[in-house]
Write a structure and sequence with these properties.
It is a single chain. Helix 11 runs antiparallel to helix 13. The strands form ten sheets. Strands 34, 35, 36, 37, 38, 39, 40, 41 and 42 form a nine-stranded antiparallel sheet that branches. The chain has a six-stranded antiparallel sheet with strand order 2-10-6-7-9-8. It has a six-stranded mixed sheet with strand order 3-19-15-16-18-17. About 45% of the residues are buried. Strand 15 (about 455-460) and strand 16 form a beta hairpin. The chain has 19 helices and 42 strands. Helices cover about 25% and strands about 30% of the residues. The chain is globular. With about 900 residues, it is α+β, with helices and mostly antiparallel strands.
């Protein structure tokens, strides 16, 4: 312990400096490593927590700093593992609520309806769950401090199939040097000692790359780690469990290893309830068993790995993106004496993955996206039909489709492996129970009709309710001043607006879902109004929040000829402007993140250069450097305080992640560096609590004056793009994306700019035949007037003020985006504005593009439910 404290206290403290804008920013809670259970955190973590929250944190910047810190941390954890482990009682698996209709499908009979009394204004309900994060995925993962590793090690290669997807890994031979024949506290501590000496982060980085390409969430990533562990130790389950546990620790999750006389199991915490799995309680946290264990007790270490707080979240925040041969399911129905036929593609490997998914909270199923191929088929075939009807008729069409074209499965069939409630499972099997049919119908209404819809969870039965503005009569629920009409997709021929007699008198739980009328949709509507006022977005996410009254709080900036000025505005629930506050300054500034502690305590984060002021409060930096600022407002827009963030700008050759911890008064501001892979550093506020907040971000720092790139190729010297292209070639970058990555890497530095003519010149230098073979693409580059990095955002201008369109991707004149680079060379483009996907009848927003360094493909993320799709570039391109 003394060694670690010496590292912490002996390091040079950070000084107040300016934060460069290349940093994308995230804000996370101040309780950095607070205890997750009573009296069970190791002394190491207690000392870290006390130190980091009471002093200006250590300056971990160099490779040796991080190496020393992680070495001592691993040694201390090994000593903790040698201590006596605790006995924990096994809790039996939880069972789901019994089905109300376990054997037979409920049947609608209009003779049983009581038409003598009018429908009430609103049926009673017990509560509302589901939607509370309009920015999409929550920001939970605190950037890790990783052990620096050499690229030169004795490597082994392995390949395996993960639900039909070919996975190739390269890992350190040292990982295989400590197979386990029996398990004890000492043997596990010995395994950890051997594991910590290996180069394990290389393997973790590869698995996280596959996670992002395949669209795997926390659970899918956990299963991928298990599959990789089985590849490394195919014949030793003990060793396989141990390396799974160790790799999940390296991935930032608070997992534990448990054993008894018969077997071992990895224990994991979850944000969701899991049914059908044993569990234990360690401290105040429930941990589920990855593998079932016999007996009543198990042994587990009571202490987590220092710094790790990751909890497995079963919700989907992106669609799966598996590849392989698709299966076609055909459907037919008759509507008003006209026959309709549809053919939908499903991926059997994705269906198998979903079949194996744990049984969990209903909101997970209701909010899950489908695959891109299925969604595109539904939009192309059903949307043209539905667009001819009014919303009420279109809803009735979809209701009949789900009621009659999908066989009803009585409760309990999931255990027999037939189908589950995810939309893709229901379509693949052409069958579903009440939950599966409700999930599918709600998904169809949200995506095809863009209507607000909610899940309705009765005791033992599921249904839906749709927000129809032109149909207010009938049974339904009043939620946030809107009437939702009941629509039962399980009972054949049951019309909308009818509560089944069997469900009368029951108070259901309402499940709010994203879509038209939801917070996600309201955020886009508010930004449309802000754009009309001349405002612009300063970031790619978390620039709008909603309070309990339904008011929207939005932040961004107003562009000007001489300067850009941040703003904060409040819109009423009806989207009328209530107040707006605008900062004044003489440099480039933008706000890009907003959160609130209470409705009367609002926090904003942004970047600035030069002078920034409001209400007599002023902060300043030099014109050549940019800094971060934090500000607090009350609910009527009064500025409480505004502070610059003290960031030192003395990084080495690559960007680091950072944590900025500050209290609610803005008086205590502390910084700590993290060498996290930037693919895991997200933007926004998180874990806001009474203690304070934490601000997270990353960026390339420079103490030099910003300089613009100028092409020198005409003078006989290699241009900057050519130099970067040669460097990419030396690192075995895929030739298909070499030119694109060279330009994007150049644009990462603030102030750099590139014209379309310069790109064409580089193409002619690199590939003289490109313009002849691909004249459309070559001319498309020539239409680019300017690509420029200003204030950390890249802006695109075209010569003719028209959009650039390629392969159904539309980039508008004036589009803005952010660039971030992953450790493996992948580059992600996050669209701020002006990016659209035109592959469907409905023009959908494009969120981001991941450029695969090694495979040379593009993985696009589009629409509000974050659909993933791989675009295979031509080999010669």
């Amino acid at each position: 312990m003394d060694k670690l404290i010496k590292i912490l206290t002996g390091s040079t403290f950070l000084k107040i400096r300016i934060l460069p804008i290349e940093m994308m920013v995230v804000i996370i809670g101040l309780s950095f490593v607070g205890k997750s259970q009573e009296n069970s955190q190791p002394q190491l973590q207690d000392h870290q927590s006390d130190y980091l929250t009471s002093h200006l944190p250590e300056k971990l910047v160099s490779t040796s700093d991080f190496y020393n810190y992680t070495r001592i941390r691993d040694e201390q954890f090994s000593e903790t593992l040698k201590e006596t482990w605790h006995d924990y009682s096994l809790f039996p698996a939880l069972s789901e609520e019994p089905k109300r209709f376990p054997n037979n499908q409920p049947v609608f009979d209009k003779l049983n309806l009581d038409s003598s009394s009018p429908s009430p204004a609103s049926l009673p309900f017990s509560g509302v769950v589901g939607l509370n994060d309009p920015g999409g995925a929550p920001l939970k993962m605190i950037p890790r401090i990783r052990k620096p590793e050499s690229d030169n090690f004795n490597a082994l290669k392995g390949t395996f199939l993960f639900y039909g997807q070919q996975i190739a890994i390269r890992y350190d031979k040292l990982l295989t040097m400590s197979p386990t024949a029996s398990v004890s506290e000492d043997s596990i501590a010995g395994f950890w000692n051997a594991f910590s000496r290996s180069n394990s982060n290389h393997l973790v980085d590869q698995l996280m790359d596959y996670r992002d390409i395949l669209g795997l969430g926390d659970w899918g990533y956990f299963q991928l780690v298990k599959a990789a562990s089985a590849c490394i130790f195919p014949d030793n389950r003990f060793s396989g469990n141990q390396i799974t546990w160790a790799l999940m620790i390296r991935s930032g999750f608070d997992v534990r290893l448990a054993f008894n006389q018969s077997t071992t199991s990895v224990l994991f915490p979850s944000e969701n309830i899991l049914y059908g799995r044993q569990s234990v309680v360690i401290g105040r946290q429930r941990f589920y068993l990855d593998r079932p264990m016999k007996g009543m007790l198990l042994l587990a270490c009571p202490n987590p790995f220092p710094d790790n707080r990751g909890v497995i979240d079963l919700k989907f925040y992106k669609s799966l993106n598996f590849h392989g041969k698709l299966k076609i399911q055909k459907f037919g129905m008759t509507w008003e004496n006209k026959k309709y036929e549809f053919s939908f593609r499903v991926n059997p490997d994705e269906v198998r993955f979903l079949n194996d998914y744990p049984r969990t909270d209903p909101v997970v199923y209701f909010r899950a996206p489908s695959s891109t191929s299925l969604k595109e088929d539904l939009l192309r075939q059903l949307y043209p039909v539905l667009s001819k009807f009014n919303k009420a008729v279109a809803t009735a069409f979809l209701l009949k489709f789900v009621q009659q074209d999908f066989e009803y499965l009585p409760g309990g069939k999931k255990d027999e492996g037939l189908t589950g409630p995810f939309p893709e499972e229901v379509i693949a099997s052409k069958s579903g129970d009440d939950k599966g049919k409700a999930v599918l119908f709600s998904w169809l209404v949200r995506n095809l009709l863009r209507l607000p819809v909610i899940g309705v969870q009765f005791p033992g039965c599921f249904s839906t309710a749709v927000g129809l503005s032109d149909q207010l009569d009938g049974d339904g629920y009043l939620l946030k001043h809107s009437k939702y009409i009941l629509a039962d997709p399980t009972s054949p021929n049951a019309p909308a607006g009818v509560l089944m007699p069997e469900l009368s008198g029951l108070n259901p739980l309402l499940i709010e879902l994203p879509g038209q009328g939801s917070l996600q949709n309201s955020s886009s509507e508010v930004w449309k109004l802000a754009y009309k006022m001349g405002a612009r977005r300063g970031g790619a996410s978390q620039d709008i929040i909603f309070d309990r009254q339904g008011r929207a709080l939005v932040t961004g900036y107003f562009p000007g000829k001489e300067s850009n000025n941040p703003f904060v505005a409040c819109f009423s629930e009806g989207n009328s402007l209530q107040w707006i506050r605008r900062f004044e300054g003489d440099g480039n500034a933008a706000a890009f993140a907003i959160t609130k502690m209470t409705d009367d305590e609002i926090y904003v984060a942004g970047s600035f250069s030069g002078k920034l002021e409001m209400d007599g409060k002023t902060i300043q930096t030099s014109a050549e450097k940019r800094g971060l600022f934090l500000a607090q407002f009350n609910q009527i827009g009064e500025l409480i305080w505004m502070k610059p963030v003290p960031i030192d700008s003395t990084l080495q050759d690559r960007p680091l992640a950072y944590l900025v911890k500050f209290d609610r008064s803005g008086n205590e501001i502390h910084i700590q560096w993290r060498n996290e892979d930037l693919r895991n550093v997200k933007c926004g506020f998180s874990e806001v609590n009474e203690t304070g907040l934490t601000f997270t971000g990353y960026g390339n720092f420079s103490t030099f004056k910003i300089r613009k790139y100028r092409d020198h190729g005409k003078n006989g010297d290699d241009s900057e793009i050519i130099k970067r292209s040669k460097l990419l070639k030396s690192k075995q970058c895929n030739p298909k994306v070499e030119a694109l990555l060279a330009v994007l890497k150049l644009l990462q530095r603030e102030g750099n700019e590139v014209t379309g003519n310069q790109i064409q010149k580089f193409i002619n230098h690199n590939n003289p035949f490109f313009a002849t073979v691909y004249p459309f693409m070559f001319n498309l580059y020539g239409r680019i007037a300017l690509l420029k990095n200003e204030n950390g955002m890249i802006s695109l201008k075209t010569n003719d003020y028209k959009s650039l369109i390629y392969n159904n991707l539309k980039i508008e004149d004036g589009a803005k985006f952010l660039i971030s680079e992953c450790d493996n060379g992948d580059v992600r483009i996050d669209g701020i504005s002006g990016f659209r996907n035109m592959a469907n009848p409905v023009d959908l927003p494009l969120n981001s593009i991941l450029i695969d360094f090694s495979a040379g493909n593009l993985i696009i993320d589009y629409d509000e439910d974050h659909m993933l799709k791989t675009i295979w570039l031509e080999p010669k391109l």
